[in-house]
Amino acid sequence: MVAVEVVEVTDELKNTYDVVVIGGGAAGLSGALMLTRARRSVVVIDAGAPRNAPASGVHGLLAREGIGPGELVERGRAEVRGYGGQVVSGEVGAVTREEAGFQVALTDGRSVRARRLLLATGLVDELPDVAGLRSRWGRDVVHCPYCHGWEIRDQAIGVLGSGPLSVHQALLFRQWSDDVTFFSHTLPSPSGEEAEQLAARGIRVVDGEVASLEIVDDRLVGVRLTDGGVVKREALAVASRMVARTGLLSALGLRAVEHPSGAGEHIPSDATGRTEVPGVWAAGNVTDLSAQVGAAAAAGAAAAAQINADLIAEETRRAVAARVRGEVPFSPEMESRVCEAVLGDRRHGL
User: Fold this and answer.
1) FAD/NAD(P)-binding domain spans which residues (predicted)?
2) How many angstroms separate the CA atoms of 242 and 122, rounded?
């Protein structure tokens, strides 16, 4: 006989959790898994808009190479729930500070309280305004050679000049194909050292603004310039401007700032994921714009360990204070119940 564990899936939120994880991608689910295994009460609130949804598969992830993004998320959710965590569909509208932690308000009117927060909301790719580009995003319009380079190897690849890293991007994609063309688009034509590097690697430079993509039978076949000329290409690399999803934390004073690379905006954090706002950690693309799925998952797990350590330090201080007063030390279960009761009293003005 095979024993089957039945895990109840519910969107009903409790009043208080040790940790609320905002964002249910690789970073958020990995952090939640680590915390639930540490016997913490955890809920993941996921708006269901993953950045990698257009991609056919996740690449460079050991033992899960090529897995579909949706399947990876579903497996992660099942693992978190298997250890007693919750994964709830919803969008966070605002987060406010309270004396004992945070209040997290969802846009549908629900709210929940947390002792700590793990921010894993990811980022949004802002793409150049070129006709046909967004509809091909994640297919034959790509951004990362490590995510997509193998899939477009030896093809005729174009690189659209769209930001400070575009020439670097062209040099990277040259590793996967000897037929790479750089379209300067709205950028000045490469000069000096950049021009020398492109020429040395055999990368053709085409000046002039790109107007649209040429699509035939649902495949990219070329890049059309504003002067009407068409350059045959089978794939196009674009360096998007990457902007962290952070508007919900404005009430805490936590705002995205320009990334040192010039590639977009992120939430700064230290090596452990700790942000400048006490009690808030960040993991994944919201703080590390270039993190792939594996790195995001690792960062989520590392931040979760630090959150658990921070909670243990707080609980230990309270236990020591209680011992000095001759009180019975709290167990973790008693600690959670007392926190919930205190927050409930404050909610009702007691």
Assistant:
1) 17-300
2) 10
